[in-house]
Amino acid sequence: MRTLVESLKRLFEAGKVTDEKLSQMVTDSKITSEEKTYIESGGSPTPDPDLLEYYNLTEGILPEEG
Fold first, then answer.
1. How far out from the chain centre does Cα 17 lie?
2. Which residue pairs from 39-44 have beta carbons closer than 8 angstroms and sit at least 24 positions apart in sequence?
């Protein structure tokens, strides 16, 4: 997720950015409606399938900690 969106998410959760402000940012094409939904939901983004595959591959070859 873009740095701007992650920053807005933190500010929204802290109550420093309103829903109205996010709506205006969508209208101004600064963020997408999907990004607005992500910010408001507080959820995590859908993982990138390529990153997930890479993670799973490296988990199998890296030694265990401890």
1. 16
2. 39/5, 39/8, 39/9, 39/12, 40/12, 42/9, 42/13
- pTM of the complete model beyond 0.85: no
For 6-40, letters b (16+ CB in 10 Å) and e give eebbeebeeeebeeeebeebeeeeebeeebbebbe
In this prediction, residue 62 carries a pLDDT of: 76
Which position has the token pair 């969508």? 26
The three-state DSSP-derived secondary structure of 22-37 is HHHHHHCCCCCHHHHH
